Amino acid sequence: MKHLPKHLQPRWRYLAVGLEGWPDAEIGRRAFQRELWFAAQNLVGDAGSAEADLSVVRFGFEAGAGHAIVRARRGEVDRARAVLACLDGVDGAEVGVRVRGVSGTVRACEEKYIRSPPEPTDQRNVVFENAERRAVGRGGRIDVRADDAFVGATELDL
What helix, strand, coil percent values describe the chain, rounded to 5? Predict the structure, then answer.
């Protein structure tokens, strides 16, 4: 089968997406892709999601933080941003999604928006609600283990 001439090939844009969840969250690429497709269908319908043609090109998630590169057709970047804004959880794990930037190639997307080192985390014991508990800190945010779930806190809350 012959390739299409360059002027007939589809044009793509790549969205660098930052992901943040609780420290014990485990999110896989397939689950993220599935939630992305469901969000696209719910927001813009079958025809709109087919036009946007969203797919996950690169994915990494570890210790509550990660990134993804999502491919979208060139004229559908705004629609892709809206779909990503609708994501609030993957496989029952709550996740925060933030579009860091848009690029024309995967390489440029990685170099500009994803190559920064991950935020360092530290585990420690803290006093929260008059009890000593385990906590995971990232930047100025602290996730405190309270019974069976995590609670978001700051230094001032401890």
Answer: 30, 45, 25
Q: Which amino acid is at 91?
A: D
Percentage of the chain with pLDDT > 90? 53
Which candidate, 74, 136, 139, 128, places its Cα nearest to that of 105?
A: 74
pTM of the model: 0.80
Q: How many CB atoms lie within 10 A of CB 126?
A: 17
Helix ranges (H only) for the chain are 29-52, 77-85, 106-109
3-state secondary structure of 13: strand
- Rounded (10°) CA dihedral 86, 89, 95, 98: -20
CA 157 to CA 17: how far, in whole Å? 29
